[in-house]
Design goal:
There is one protein chain. The chain is of the alpha/beta class and 239 residues long. It has one domain: Rossmann fold, CATH 3.40.50. It is built from seven helices and seven strands. It has a seven-stranded parallel beta sheet with strand order 3-2-1-4-5-6-7, sandwiched between helices. Strand 1, helix 1 and strand 2 form a beta-alpha-beta unit.
């Protein structure tokens, strides 16, 4: 699929990796629907930057755990050729203090949300692409993030199941990032430990994720139901 003239809906596009993905796809000639929930000002700024690139851009606001709001956002977006579901939450939840609210917070945002976008876009999409975001640790969990990791493992199954449900007209894949954009509260010691746990001994960059998205959207029409791990070898571990 060539992106020129296509419409791409990027969820969580106001900040971080979602923002970088939206800008990269706009530079490839795509019109961008910028989804946000709370990052309204950031989304408006991004729309302005994208329009300066000579393509169309529209901001839509929705709580992606709310089916009615997601449906309204998709209706406002109009014809969508590509869905990039990057919006997610990530919170430390040690088992000793884990609550039902922690579970609901992560499963609703990280699994129900992508499902709702896929449901509404998929009903309307005749042909196209969907890219979801899992996590390398959904394949090899670590401690203190149980609800988050379960939600991302669910994204992997959602990706594979949707690939079957929407075949052959829509290709559905996922990216499982490794250490690309660490939480802002990580100490230098924690950051260095993560760096050393990769095989390449460095952190990734948003561009690594952008390149993976471009491959799955523009680089091939013969990959579906796949989970592309972009983690510098973190899944294998350095030990």
């Amino acid at each position: 699929m060539k992106l020129t003239g296509r419409t791409v809906l990027v969820t969580g596009a106001g900040k971080r990796v979602g923002r970088e993905i939206a800008l990269a796809l706009a530079r490839r000639g795509a019109n961008i629907v910028v989804h946000c929930h709370t990052a309204v000002q950031e989304a408006r700024q991004l729309v302005s930057e994208i329009r300066d690139l000579g393509v169309r851009a529209l901001a839509v606001r929705a709580d992606q755990t709310n089916a009615q709001q997601v449906r309204a956002a998709v209706v406002r977006a109009g014809k969508v050729d590509v869905l990039i579901a990057s919006a997610a939450v990530y919170r430390r939840t040690p088992f000793k203090t884990l609550t039902e609210a922690d579970w609901d917070f992560h499963l609703d945002a990280n699994l129900k949300g992508p499902f709702l976008w896929a449901l509404e876009v998929g009903k309307r999409m005749r042909t196209g692409k969907m890219v979801f975001f899992a996590d390398w640790a959904a394949l090899r969990p670590y401690r203190h993030y149980l609800p988050y990791l379960v939600s991302k493992a669910g994204v992997i199954c959602l990706t594979k199941a949707l690939a079957k449900e929407l075949a052959p007209r829509v290709q559905v894949n996922a990216i499982a990032p490794g250490p690309v954009w660490l939480p802002p509260d990580f100490t230098e010691t924690e950051t260095e430990a993560v760096r050393q746990a990769t095989l390449v001994k460095r952190l990734g960059s948003p561009q690594d994720i952008v390149s993976a998205v471009l491959f799955l959207v523009e680089g091939t029409d013969f990959v579906t139901g796949h989970v592309l791990v972009v983690d510098g070898g973190r899944l294998l571990g350095a030990e």
